[in-house]
Design a protein that fits this description.
The chain is of the alpha/beta class and 148 residues long. The chain contains 4 helices and 7 strands.
Length: 148
C-alpha cells in the first residue's frame, strides 16, 4: 500500500520539491513531481537546473522519450509515468493516480488556505487507511539523514 508523507510548513514549496527530489535521487529513488498547472511546472523546471547550486538535478517532462532513464520527471496533467517509485505532489487536492506509487509526498505551505487544503488531503488518506507520516519543516527543516 502507498505510504504518504506530509511535509508541512514549507516557505517555498518549489524549493522543497527540489530538495526532496535531490534526496530521492541520492538514495536511488526515482521521483515524479506533479504540478497543478503548466506555469508551476515551468518554474520548477528552471529551478531544477540550478539546484543544488553546484550542480543540477537531471530531469525531463513525463512525455519526453528519455523519461524512463531520468531520476526526476516533471508532470502536469498526465497520468502516464515511466515509473511509480515516488510521487511529489504540488496539487491542492489528492490526485486520482496517487495509489500507483509506492510513496507520495504532499508539500504543504505555511499560509492558512494551503494548510486547510492539506488537512483535507490528510483526512482523505487517513480515512482510507494509508500509512501517514508528518514532518514539520517549520520546526525541524528538511531532515538530512532521513531517506526520501
Amino acid at each position: 500500500m502507498t505510504k504518504v508523507d506530509f511535509y508541512t510548513g514549507s516557505t517555498d514549496k518549489l524549493r522543497t520539491a527540489c530538495q526532496l527530489s535531490h534526496k530521492a535521487m541520492q538514495n536511488g529513488v526515482r521521483a515524479v513531481i506533479s504540478t497543478h498547472d503548466a506555469a508551476t511546472g515551468d518554474a520548477l523546471d528552471k529551478l531544477l537546473w540550478h539546484y543544488p547550486a553546484t550542480a543540477f538535478i537531471p530531469h525531463c517532462r513525463s512525455d519526453a522519450g528519455e523519461a524512463a532513464q531520468m531520476p526526476v520527471v516533471l508532470d502536469h496533467g498526465g497520468e502516464k509515468f515511466p515509473h511509480y517509485d515516488l510521487l511529489i505532489s504540488l496539487h491542492n487536492e489528492c490526485v486520482p493516480f496517487f495509489s500507483r506509487f509506492e510513496r507520495v509526498i504532499e508539500i504543504i505551505g505555511s499560509d492558512a488556505e494551503d494548510r486547510r487544503l492539506g488537512r483535507e488531503r490528510f483526512k482523505f488518506y487517513r480515512d482510507r487507511g494509508y500509512e501517514l507520516r508528518h514532518i514539520d519543516l517549520s520546526q525541524t527543516g528538511l531532515p538530512e539523514a532521513q531517506n526520501s
